[in-house]
Amino acid sequence: MTESILKNARIPRSLSPFPQGESVLVDCDIRIQDGLITAVDPAGSGHASETASVNDLQGRIVMPGFLDAHVHIDKAFTWDRAPNVRGEFWDAIELLSKDKENWTAEDLYRRGTFALRCAEAHGSVALRTHVDTGLDWGEVSHDAMQTLRQEWAGRIDLQTVSLCGIESYLEPAGRRIAEWTLKHPNALLGGMPQMNPDLDKQLRYFFDLAAEMGVGVDLHVDENGNAEAECLRHIAQIVLEKEFPHPVTCGHVCSLAVQDAERAASTIDLVREAGVQIISLPLCNLYLQGRPTETGHRGTPRWRGVTLLHELHDAGVTTACASDNVRDAFYAWGDFDMFEVFTQSIRIAHLDTKPAAACAMVTSGPAAIMGLSQYGKIAVGMDARMVAFAAKSFNELLSRPNQTRELIGYHSDASSVPAYDEL
């Protein structure tokens, strides 16, 4: 194929092959052939061949394709038929449990296709979706995700994770849940542990099962503002105790932010030592956390729901931010747009003081968590799908989040988001 060159692209230094320096962004020329990056040189240092296709970006910011490491495709776009008018967590669980009667293979495929079209049109190249897995609906859901995985191969890498109460694996149905999940490729075991007297027993069985089946795990953890919720700490301790050999990811971990500083720091130390990876879901947790109180308060929330992203990053823990739910009872809005997640996470978590880390949390961070080494950076040998923005500085990028973006190297059908009428 003909070589193409992106001239004068301004890329995050932390996602480039250049040594670290004072500037967050660096100007470069990027050479592309056969869908891969073949060279990244300082801007103006090379010469284009006569046959090369040249696109002069004139200093516009370019990011590698985004990765959304924690979503719920099976629930997406159900808000209109199951709205959560009070915006409360347990209401969302009840509403979507009732809506599962609508989760036929056709319904899951239709909404899932729409979700992936949105994600690609916004610049994503990979998603990891949690799939509600119970005896009455789990197999159909996983099969629908497998159909999407096959149809979207080469456009979006789709990974799946089982989602159920962690105690379910101890029940007779537990092995069937695991088998349904793992009969398809690119799958992990997951679940939602809750603080209870049998938590360690449940976690030990779960990790033994995952070790037996040779897979990593991805768990929903401490999605609340209760300082006594310490499932994360228990998980890290058991990972160390068992020397669990596969990747471990924990999403949410909201309660870490309301714990005593010394206790939180010691938990982060355990997380780092155990190699546990953390995914924060700032938009969804901002939406759900802080609504109800024991006095029935329905007014202004008292906290943001976001975990200790700064402290986790500073400790060397691999971190990412992701979409979580989209237009369902857990989160009323969203569009599988990782640039929105990027800009809003910076504002919610004050990541403006860590621009390099913020860039990594939607690119190289989730790539590492998902085990997709070909994504997340702009370097030789990496996937050449990139997103070019109109902005030339981070301030411009964050100040106008609805600015035009140019998809480079994506499928021709990814040029625009689908209309809601198609749902």
UniProtKB/TrEMBL annotation:
<dbReference type="InterPro" id="IPR011059">
    <property type="entry name" value="Metal-dep_hydrolase_composite"/>
</dbReference>
<dbReference type="InterPro" id="IPR052349">
    <property type="entry name" value="Metallo-hydrolase_Enzymes"/>
</dbReference>
<dbReference type="GO" id="GO:0004131">
    <property type="term" value="F:cytosine deaminase activity"/>
</dbReference>
<feature type="domain" description="Amidohydrolase 3">
    <location>
        <begin position="194"/>
        <end position="395"/>
    </location>
</feature>
<dbReference type="Pfam" id="PF07969">
    <property type="entry name" value="Amidohydro_3"/>
</dbReference>
<dbReference type="InterPro" id="IPR032466">
    <property type="entry name" value="Metal_Hydrolase"/>
</dbReference>
<protein>
    <submittedName>
        <fullName>Cytosine deaminase</fullName>
        <ecNumber>3.5.4.1</ecNumber>
    </submittedName>
</protein>
<dbReference type="InterPro" id="IPR013108">
    <property type="entry name" value="Amidohydro_3"/>
</dbReference>
<keyword id="KW-0378">Hydrolase</keyword>
